[in-house]
Design a protein that fits this description.
- This protein has about 200 residues and is mainly alpha-helical.
- It has one domain.
- The protein is about 70% helix and about 0% strand.
- The longest helix has 24 residues.
Length: about 200
């Protein structure tokens, strides 16, 4: 039965909140505007604060819900972590949208909250501190993912969850490889910048 939860995590993760929100709101497809990324930061660029907030909530919820469901069924920590990874993979490679997904940050954060609310608070606090200081959403996400395994160890003492956290962080870094290049050469857009990178 344990394998059921990662499968559900992947399917729920495959629902792109950005694409759905933009379609309902009559906004352009976020995959064709701004940075081309179907995520909350790009929806902020192309549609404003309210659609971006709804997208952020939706992307976080699809990481949170399957992980909470797995935890409620008392499945082992490894399978809770695998459910979190599956939800993130669903966002990155959504089966419902030609496997063209977003960067996975909000979904990762939702999944992390499902694993441990304290870990989630630490990760969000790290994101806020970096984003408010430097105004780069990608930089804040990357640093928070670097700290994730440490936070998981402090709050859960589960080596299985720490390893899953490392995998989630690696996926986020891989998906942000273009952002990393732009951060290094100084062309990464800041939060609120409507220009295309």
């Amino acid at each position: 039965m344990h394998y059921f939860f990662p499968l559900i995590g992947y399917l729920i993760g495959s629902i792109s909140a950005a694409i759905v929100v933009c379609k309902v709101a009559g906004l352009p497809d976020p995959r064709t505007q701004g940075s081309g990324n179907p995520g909350a930061t790009n929806v902020l660029r192309v549609g404003g604060k309210l659609p971006a907030a709804i997208t952020l909530f939706g992307d976080a919820a699809k990481g949170l819900l399957p992980v909470v469901a797995a935890a409620a069924m008392d499945v082992p920590p490894l399978w809770i972590g695998l459910t979190a990874i599956a939800a993130v993979l669903g966002h990155l490679f959504p089966i419902f949208f030609q496997f063209r997904g977003g960067k996975g940050v909000a979904t990762s954060y939702g999944a992390i909250f499902g694993i441990s609310w304290l870990t989630g608070l630490l990760v969000i606090a790290s994101w806020l501190a970096i984003s408010l200081t430097f105004r780069y959403s990608s930089l804040a996400a990357l640093i928070s993912m670097l700290l994730l395994p440490l936070y998981l160890w402090i709050t859960t003492r589960s080596i299985e969850l720490v390893v899953c956290g490392v995998i989630i962080g690696a996926l986020i870094f891989w998906r942000h490889r273009a952002n990393i290049a732009r951060l290094l050469n100084g062309t990464e857009p800041k939060i609120g910048d409507k220009s295309k990178p």
